[in-house]
Amino acid sequence: MVVLLTVILTLQEFFIEANCLFKHFSAGIDGLDLPIEGIFRGGILIHAGNPGSGSVEDSRKVSERFDSAVLEAVDYGLAVLGETVRQAIYSHIGMKYQVKREEIPEKLDVFCRASGGLFGAGAKVVEKLIARRLYSKLGLSFEEHENWTLVEYVNHAKKARVEG
After folding, report:
1. Domain span holding position 86
2. Cα(16)–Cα(71) distance, rounded to whole angstroms?
3. How many separate domains does the chain show?
4. Distance CA 74, CA 129 (A)
5. What is the CATH number of the domain that holds 90?
6. What is the SS3 string spanning the chain?
7. What is this structure's pTM?
8. Nearest alpha carbon to residue 93 among 121, 64, 120, 117
9. How far apart are CA 85 and CA 62, in angstroms?
10. Element of type H or E holding 92
11. Tens place of pLDDT per residue across the chain (164 aa)
């Protein structure tokens, strides 16, 4: 527990500085080639097809692939902080909020509330990094909205994939 508290305090300090840095390089972050990229296996292509033309099973598969893309984007956003920190964050969210890593796409609002508690104002930096990664994985163009939360970005991406 002491290690987790130390990690959280260090992260809060990190995000105060990172918020300024994020504004500086956020326009080019999609092209940033980070070494953690190798933890993801292959790209995910989601194709919803024509509305009403697929079966319930097809729409379930599309939903599962979308959730998988969300989870990979969350992994990516948290991995920037380091693997140990990422695992500590997942552990903390699991214990305090009863949300397992695999449940994050369905309980994204709880994840956002938890990250806000952990990172304070720095949560916006992480959320935008996650959103950028999700949009990139889905082949969507990311447009920053000042007051949007991760939930709003994810809902917009889901809607854009269905309509696109």
Report:
1. 2-163
2. 25
3. 1
4. 9
5. 1.10.1200.200
6. CHHHHHHHHHHHHHHHHHHHHHHHHHHHHHHCCCHHHHHCCCCCCCCCCCCCCCCHHHHHHHHHHHHHHHHHHHHHHHHCCCHHHHHHHHHHHHHHHCCCHHHCCCCHHHHHHHHHHHHHHHHHHHHHHHHHHHHHHHCCCCCCCCCCCHHHHHHHHHHHHHHC
7. 0.68
8. 117
9. 31
10. helix 83-97
11. 555 545 554 555 554 444 433 433 343 444 433 333 333 333 333 333 444 455 565 778 888 999 999 999 999 999 999 999 999 999 999 999 999 999 999 999 999 999 999 999 999 999 999 999 999 999 999 999 989 999 999 999 999 987 76
Residue type, 64: E
